[in-house]
Amino acid sequence: MLRLGIVGTNWITKRFVDAAHESGLFELRAVYSRKLEKAQAFAKDYPSVQDFKTDLEQFMASPSFEVVYIASPNSLHFSQAKAAIKAGKHVIVEKPICLNPGQMQELRELLAEHQGQFLFEAARHTHEPNYLAVKEAVAKLPVVQGATLTYMKYSSRYDAYLAGENPNIFSPKFAGGALQDLGVYMVHCAVGWFGKPLNAQYFPTKLANGIDAKGIAILTYQDFTVTLNVGKTANSYLPGEIYGLKETIWMDNAADLKQVELRTPTTTRTLSQTPAENELLAEAVAFGKVLTNPDLPENKAQAQAWLEQTVTVNEVMYQLRQSSNLYFEDEN
Ligand SMILES: NC(=O)c1ccc[n+]([C@@H]2O[C@H](COP(=O)([O-])OP(=O)(O)OC[C@H]3O[C@@H](n4cnc5c(N)ncnc54)[C@H](OP(=O)(O)O)[C@@H]3O)[C@@H](O)[C@H]2O)c1
């Protein structure tokens, strides 16, 4: 059983811990929170937790766990992942793994100095069967002529922003915004399904504090373009589509894939299956399998392939931000 520690005590962490337990491969042992009461409150459903820390360095140094799941505000991922790798832990970091290629390079160099440790970005949807079904279907298309993918969901925290508060997800200090929060799912889809684009441009609608509320990204490939529609201040009900010749891959939502179809003018074939109730189960199983048998060559290759996709996504995300002068606080 893999002993798990967590950073961040919001709902997504509970979702991940439940998925990790459901996988049968992990057991939660340690909780870090800035407040002891919060750590204890989080752990009330998990009697396996005996270790509570409010000091991050002491937490990472604790021998009570070997894998840490980090679900803190985006701008903290880099320093916390670094601290975890240095302390000898395997690391699962929520998306986006870090903010720019410089940080990504530092993480990779550190990882290279810590042979045998793994670093995973929790891009949950890329482990789900329906994402993989699309990937397989794309590979079989006679030609790809482009795609349009949409993920736009009104955030309840936008109400807080409008009320004059400064929620992390709309804050330049914590690297918030539509692209970082929801766009990263779409960029993972594009990179995973079509490879690295030749060019990437972002056209954001910005808030007064400079953060992108919504936007359109255009990824240019050799023979086609992919359009990404992302937003946190409006809802979209548009499906996603990938254009072959007579075939179109149709999906209800590229990040929350429940329905995928291969359509022609005369036929419709369902490619999707009913997703797991917990949308983080697939990634928990995937990471757990690798960590349980870390020396198997196929597991090492799988982890390397995930990391390569993460590195490419990180580059594309940064290019998108550069194209629209979207920078965060404390970013050199
Ligand atoms: N995969 C998915 O489906 C999914 C869904 C939602 C979010 N996420 C990702 O999960 C991460 C967390 O998102 P979230 O919305 O939960 O973020 P959040 O509410 O802003 O913060 C998450 C946790 O970080 C800690 N924290 C909050 N503010 C902090 C601060 N100023 N300084 C230090 N720590 C702070 C808090 O834990 P303590 O108070 O206990 O210290 C909090 O529970 C993000 O990277 C997001 O992209 C992923």
**Sheet bearing the most strands, described?**
8 strands, mixed
CATH superfamily of the largest domain: Dihydrodipicolinate Reductase, domain 2
List cofactors, ions and other ligands: NADP nicotinamide-adenine-dinucleotide phosphate
CATH topology of the largest domain: Dihydrodipicolinate Reductase, domain 2
- Report the strand count: 14
Cα Rg:
20 Å
**Could you say what the CATH architecture of the largest domain is?**
2-Layer Sandwich
**Assembly level:** single chain
Shape: globular
Distance between the termini: 41 Å
Number of domains: 2
Mean of the pLDDT scores? 97
Helical region count? Answer: 10
Structural class given helices, strands, pairing? alpha/beta
Residues in helices, as a percent range:
25-40%
Are there runs of 5+ residues with pLDDT below 50, and where?
A: none
Order of helices and strands: EHEHEHEHEHEHEHHEEEEEEEHH
| CATH class placement of the largest domain | Alpha Beta
Read across the widest sheet, the strand sequence of neighbours is 8-9-10-7-11-12-13-14
Written overview of the protein:
- By secondary structure, this protein is of the alpha/beta class.
- The chain folds into 2 domains: 2-122, Rossmann fold (3-Layer(aba) Sandwich), CATH 3.40.50.720; 127-275, Dihydrodipicolinate Reductase, domain 2 (2-Layer Sandwich).
- The chain is built from 10 helices and 14 strands.
- The chain has helices spanning 11-23, 36-42, 56-61, 77-86, 101-113, 129-140, 156-162, 178-194, 281-292, 297-323; strands at 2-7, 26-32, 51-53, 67-70, 90-94, 119-122, 146-152, 199-206, 212-220, 225-231, 240-243, 248-251, 260-263, 268-270.
- It has an 8-stranded mixed β-sheet. The protein has a 6-stranded parallel β-sheet with strand order 3-2-1-4-5-6, sandwiched between helices.
- α1 (11-23) packs across α9 (281-292).
- The termini are far apart.
- The structure holds NADP nicotinamide-adenine-dinucleotide phosphate.
- Residues 8-10, 12, 33-34, 38, 71-74, 76, 94-95, 122, 124, 168-169, 181 line the site of NADP nicotinamide-adenine-dinucleotide phosphate (NAP).
